[in-house]
Amino acid sequence: MTDLIVIGAGPGGYEAAAHAGKKGKKVILFERQYIGGTCLNVGCIPTKTLLKSAHVFAECKHAAAYGVEDTGTPKLNMVKAQERKAKVVATLTKGVEALLKKSGVEVIRAHAEIKGAGKVEADGKIYEAANILIATGSKPATPPIPGINNPKVLDSTSILALNEIPETLAVIGGGVIGLEFASFFADAGSKVTVVEMLPQIAPVVDSEITKRLQMAMKKKGVQFNLNAKVTKIDGSTLHFTDESGAEQSLTATYILNSTGRTAVVDGLGLEAAGIEFTKRGITADESGRTNIPGIWACGDVTGRCQLAHAATREGIAAVENMFGGKQKIRYTAIPSVVYTNPEVASCGKTEDQLTKEGVAFKKSVMPMGVAGRFLVEYEGESGTVKVLTGEHGVILGVHMIGGPAGEHIFGAAMMIEQEMRVKDIFEIVFPHPTISEALKEAIIHAE
Fold first, then answer.
1. Each residue's pLDDT tens digit, 84-136
2. Nearest to 216 by CA among 203, 201, 204, 229
3. Cβ-count burial of 150 within 10 angstroms (0-12 exposed, 13-18 middle, 19+ buried)?
4. I need a surface site. Which of 185, 286, 361, 400 has the fewest CB within 10 A?
5. Which domains does the chain have, with CATH numbers?
């Protein structure tokens, strides 16, 4: 009998399948579309590949600040950028396929439907296993806005296929996805306007950091309409009410719908199998268990934490637990990154969360410029590291903007996971010169 059936080959599913295979378990992985899932094919990787092209383009325009002259007039060729994106995706997809093969995982390209505990149907055939892990991910949400279903409105998947830089772009939603695309197209030369219904962009990020991000994006020409509600779309014209309630409209080459993502639960047979789920996704505890013994879930489909690395952690934890382990996930220690230019990285509680929870804390805010390497590599730019500490100096939250913030937020994740204190960081040596030194400076100044 098969030990594990995994439905979905995204970061949660394929990593869980490979992990179980390495443990000597017999594993079948069902995937109907993308090996590597949304993240690898039409999400994280292609988005970051294009963002890198935009970063290089922006640096070329400011090369003189570093003493590099006579570079000519830089131009971003989207066709070539798309070709590079496709090459990167293909390389990584082959890597995932090789991982699964090496781990002994049987991959079946088909839609799978759960027929009860331990049973899955695909292409008219019943497969049985001791455990089933649902890792079907998420898809772009489509809000009930009149006119949203027209060719001028793109979502986070279709906009990745553009071979042109639109003259103007209207972005519905100031969350992580919307901001990353706004940053890319602004750097690429588009005139970008963001329309967000909340009073703050990136609402899951520390509010002090988001204010700095908004200012940085305004400098590159991005316009923001906050407290604004989209009422309808007429062709390429977006209609909305502003914060005063007045009717406004703007016309753009394209309109991007980036109002979030919704769990992929249709066609899985959840109701018939008795698996509990809501509009947010499948209900699973911190061990990955659903209400049905032997059926597990991880990643975006649970609606808990829509991050690729969180899905991987959840999938591996579920595998460990289904085969006798006792793993739980400390969600406050899962880092997140907004890949705008400048980058934003966070881990742990925000200042607003701690205040709302009534938790006493101290705050330390340090410019990244205290690290010599930041001044060397980011001429004319600013960056900030914010550290929140609690009782006995325990590190509760770290929030950064600027430079390669995403590359050293893992250090903060480790500190929060291990409940480290400020005095513990005194004993850790940070390499010099690195931008990570700004993180240590912010921490040791927290007490």
1. 999 999 999 999 999 999 999 999 999 999 999 999 999 999 999 999 999 99
2. 201
3. exposed
4. 286
5. 2-140+262-329 (3.50.50.60), 153-259 (3.50.50.60), 332-444 (3.30.390.30)
